[in-house]
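User: For documentation purposes, I need each entry recorded in a consistent format: the amino acid sequence on its own, followed directly by the corresponding structure tokens. There are two entries in this batch. Please keep commentary to a minimum and don't merge the entries.

Assistant: Recorded as requested. Entry 1:
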Amino acid sequence: MLTREKLIEILRDGQCFLQHDLFTNEAGLAHLLGLTPRTLRNWREVGNGPRAHYTSRVLYDIDEIVRWYNDFSTQRSRSG
């Protein structure tokens, strides 16, 4: 299970963008998931992945990422 603290640690260790421990950007989420930013853009277009917030750039709420990640992991373990 991913915790908020663990996610922040992963992002910091990867030297990813982290705004006030509340938001990360597309590159930060891609780092966490081992995906490309292009894959995340494709996911957004079809409504997959954690909800994105649009400002002058695309940001992802840390708590939303944790919630989505844990739900996704649970669903995968049930189907696999």
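Entry 2:
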Amino acid sequence: MDHCDDNPTAADALDAYCLEMELWVEAVKGGKSVENLIPVNVAPTLENAEQLGGRLVFLRSEILPRAERKTAARSGELDSWIA
């Protein structure tokens, strides 16, 4: 898979990254294998899954919306959202 083609903007790439990491978090919390998921450089423990999950919530609530607004502003879409 060519991740650049699938995620043409920074917001798209961050969203895809969060999704892949959320799959890892859910697998760990569910006691499932993470072997075929995105590599994460920590042991697949509940503590690590909880910490990563909290970071992903922050990324999705604070960073991703800003990246989406910046992308929209660059493409001229923000003007139509405000009107």
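Summary note for entry 2:
The mean pLDDT is 87.
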